[in-house]
Design a protein that fits this description.
globular; disordered N terminus; alpha/beta; two-stranded parallel ribbon; two-stranded antiparallel sheet; about 55% helix; single chain; 9 helices; binds 2'-deoxyadenosine-5'-diphosphate
C-alpha cells in the first residue's frame, strides 16, 4: 500500500516522490494557451508566496507547506477551469480534479534532461529511480478514482502534440456533457 508507505516517511522524503523533466510545464502552458484554461505551477506559486516550511539540506530544496498551498488555491479550484502542474498529487483534495494526467518519460531521456538541468549525484539518481518505480502513477491511483487517472507518454515532440490534442478533445467533451 503506497499511501501507507508514504505516510510513514518524514515530510522531507515525501518531497522526493517526484519526476521533474517529464514535460509537465511545457504541456501545461501550451494547453492553457490553446484552451484558455488557467495554468498554475505549484512550484512558482509556493515561491511567490513563500509557502515553505523549512529547508531540506539533503536535497537542497525548500520544503513545501502543503496546507498553505491548498488554502491558497482552494477558491480558484472551486471556480474551476484550472490546470495544476506538480510532481505529486496526494496533497490535493480529491474534489479539485475531474481528470489527472501522469506524464511518463523513458529513463535514458529523463537522465539526459535532468543532467542538462544541472542535477547530479543522489538527486539525479533518486529522481530517475522514482520514474523507474512509477511512483507518481501509483500515488495518483491511490489518491484518486483510478478511472480519472491517465498515463501519457512524453518522450518526443510528437508525443507532446498528441497529448495536447487528446486532452483538448477530452476537455471539449467534458464541457459538452456538463452544460
Ligand atoms: P517538467 O515541468 O516536468 O519538469 P519541462 O516541461 O520543464 O518538464 O520539460 C523538461 C525538458 O524536456 C525541457 O527541456 C523541455 C523538454 N520536453 C518536454 N516535453 C517534451 C517532449 N514531449 N519531447 C521532448 N522534449 C520534451
Amino acid at each position: 500500500n503506497v499511501t501507507r508507505f508514504n505516510q510513514e516517511l518524514p515530510t522531507s522524503r515525501l518531497l522526493q516522490k517526484r519526476t521533474p523533466g517529464v514535460g509537465k510545464t511545457t504541456l501545461g502552458k501550451e494547453l492553457a494557451q490553446r484552451t484558455g484554461l488557467t495554468y498554475v505551477n505549484i512550484g512558482d506559486l509556493a515561491q511567490e508566496g513563500q509557502l515553505y516550511d523549512g529547508y531540506d539540506e539533503e536535497y537542497q530544496c525548500p520544503i513545501l507547506d502543503e496546507d498553505r498551498v491548498v488554502d491558497e488555491l482552494d477558491e480558484k479550484m472551486v471556480e474551476g477551469g484550472v490546470i495544476v502542474d506538480y510532481h505529486g498529487c496526494d496533497l490535493f483534495p480529491e474534489r479539485w480534479f475531474h481528470i489527472v494526467f501522469v506524464l511518463r518519460t523513458d529513463n535514458t531521456q529523463l537522465y539526459t534532461r535532468l543532467e542538462s538541468r544541472g542535477y547530479t549525484g543522489k538527486k539525479l539518481q533518486d529522481n530517475v529511480q522514482c520514474e523507474i518505480f512509477q511512483t507518481i502513477y501509483e500515488e495518483a491511483t491511490e489518491a484518486y478514482n483510478e478511472e480519472i487517472v491517465h498515463q501519457l507518454p512524453s518522450n518526443t515532440p510528437d508525443d507532446l502534440e498528441r497529448n495536447l490534442e487528446q486532452i483538448m478533445q477530452w476537455t471539449e467533451q467534458w464541457t459538452k456533457d456538463h452544460n
